[in-house]
Structure formats: structure tokens, C-alpha cells
Specification:
The chain is α/β, with parallel strands linked by helices. It is 36% helix and 15% strand.
Length: 291
């Protein structure tokens, strides 16, 4: 049984197959290849885009999807997460899609299920399908990825999206630079800077991140406005440069990216959302089509 907990659970060849399938699924049609499959969504953390994206992906593949209301689940009665997973698994689903505020939960659950566990985001650890859809968006725009340069900007230390993208994009030959204030930078061997102006003339793409205020033990800035004065991606910064913009959402308008750039054709945020459905269809196909 194969799970998707981290991006490196898939080889380069497997990722390329997923990208190819995602491109085919971009026709917007239903492909009922999972007609007899059952998928459970288990979201312990709020989500709009990721949860809806997985559900639409499953339905476009013809799968039956069961959403577990965590607020009313037995975990609220003291049942452990492992017991919850084992009980759900005993009902015979083919995949369980898990999102949790604590890093490591999907990995732990994968040790106790016959169903494929798909990590829809765990703490500040990983968000593999987001990185896959980001890779797909970059590939659709650039074609050849090797040698392209991207800056990941913002609260990198607390970002599961950054972790997954750093691993996956680097494997595909993309040069990654991290841009953040010192307290938002993790220990890394990658190039880093504290100033957007240092990288703006040297990158092909910028990935802005949401400030993970819910994961901060103490307030890092006097206000988000202060943060934005240094790290918001603005029209003044970008000018007429041939650069594309990515963001995993939700976007803090005029904190992460300014309103004007969000409406610019160089901004690929809505394309990322569309691509997310197709990538998640491809992931579901890979993990449970032949079960």
C-alpha cells in the first residue's frame, strides 16, 4: 500500500506520471475510473481550498466520498487518533485524506491502515499535493524547469508548503532562494536574503506565503502592516518584469500580494486552484485505481 505523506514518497518518474495525468484531467470532464472506490476526508484543521479540491477531484473520478465531521467524532469523546483511523479503516475505505494541525499525524496513521493515507497538510511539516500543483503550474508556464529560479517569500519557518516545495522543486532542477526576516528563516543550505530587492532581477517566479500567525508562539511584528512594508509583493517591486507569482492561499491582500498584482495576468493563484483539482485527481488515480 502506497501513501502520500511527503513529496519524496514519489520518485521523479512517478511525479512525471502524475503531471501527465493531471494534464489529461485538465479537460474538465468526468473520468469515472474510481467508480467503486470509497474515500474518507478527515480534516482536524479548517480548510476551504484543499478539502473542496479533494472532494471535487474524487467526484470527477466517480468515487464515493465520506466526510467525517471531526467536531462530532469520537476523538471528542477521548478516542485516540490511531483508534479512530483503525476503526475507519475497518469499514473498508480505499483512501483516507488527513489534515491535522500537528506534524506527523498522517505518518502515524499510515502505520495502522490498509487504506492509502494522503496528507492534506500536517502542522508545519508537509503539504505534498500543494507542492505537486505548484510544480505543475510552473511546468505549464515554463515547459522546461531545470535552471529556472524561484524565490519563496515569507513565513518559511512555519510553512509546510515551503518545506514540500523546497524538496520537490529542487529535485526538478529549480534554483530556490528563501526570502524572509531572520526569525522566519529555518536552518538551511539554500541561498537566503532578507530583502526582496536582492532577488527581484534574478528570478523567474516568486512564491509568496501566508504569514502563519496561528503558529507563532509570540507576536513577531507590531502589525501585519509592518511586515507588508518589507515583504508584500507589489507592482512597484515587480514593475514590468517577466515574473510569475504563486501563492498557496488564502492570500492576505496587500500583506502578501497587493490587489493590483492579484488581478495581473502574471499572477497564477486561480490557475493553481484549478490545477489543484487535476493534480489531486492524478494522485487519487495513482494510489487507489488498481486496488
Amino acid at each position: 500500500m502506497q501513501h502520500l505523506i511527503r513529496t519524496d514518497d514519489f520518485t521523479v518518474e512517478e511525479v512525471e506520471d502524475i503531471l501527465s495525468d493531471a494534464k489529461l484531467f485538465g479537460d474538465g470532464k468526468f473520468h469515472p475510473i474510481l467508480k467503486n472506490k470509497i474515500i474518507i476526508t478527515l480534516f482536524f484543521e479548517n480548510s476551504t481550498r484543499t478539502k473542496s479540491s479533494f472532494e471535487i477531484a474524487a467526484k470527477r473520478l466517480g468515487a464515493e466520498i465520506v466526510h467525517l465531521d471531526v467536531a462530532k467524532s469520537s476523538t471528542k469523546k477521548g478516542e485516540t487518533l490511531v483508534d479512530t483511523a483503525m476503526n475507519l479503516d475497518a469499514m473498508g475505505p480505499h483512501a483516507i485524506i488527513v489534515r491535522h494541525q500537528n506534524a506527523g499525524v498522517p505518518k502515524i496513521l499510515s502505520n495502522h491502515t490498509k487504506a492509502s493515507i494522503i496528507n492534506a497538510g500536517d502542522g508545519a511539516h508537509a503539504h505534498p499535493t500543494q507542492a505537486l500543483l505548484d510544480l505543475f503550474t510552473l511546468k505549464e508556464h515554463f515547459g522546461e524547469l531545470s535552471g529556472k529560479k524561484i524565490a519563496i517569500v515569507g513565513d518559511i519557518k512555519n510553512s509546510r508548503v515551503a518545506n514540500s516545495n523546497i524538496e520537490l522543486l529542487s529535485r526538478f532542477g529549480i534554483d530556490v532562494t528563501l526570502v524572509a526576516p531572520p526569525h522566519f528563516l529555518p536552518k538551511t543550505n539554500l541561498k537566503t536574503t532578507h530583502k526582496l530587492t536582492d532577488i527581484i532581477d534574478d528570478v523567474d517566479a516568486i512564491m509568496s506565503l501566508r504569514t502563519q500567525t496561528e503558529r507563532h508562539s509570540s507576536q513577531s511584528y507590531a502589525s501585519l502592516k509592518d511586515y507588508a512594508s518589507d515583504f508584500c509583493i507589489t507592482t512597484q517591486l515587480v514593475g514590468n518584469r517577466d515574473i510569475i507569482l504563486l501563492h498557496p492561499g488564502p492570500v492576505h491582500r496587500n500583506i502578501d500580494i497587493c490587489d493590483e498584482l492579484l488581478a495581473d495576468e502574471r499572477c497564477k493563484v486561480l490557475e493553481q486552484v484549478s490545477n489543484g483539482v487535476n493534480i489531486r485527481m492524478a494522485v487519487l488515480k495513482k494510489l487507489i485505481h488498481d486496488i
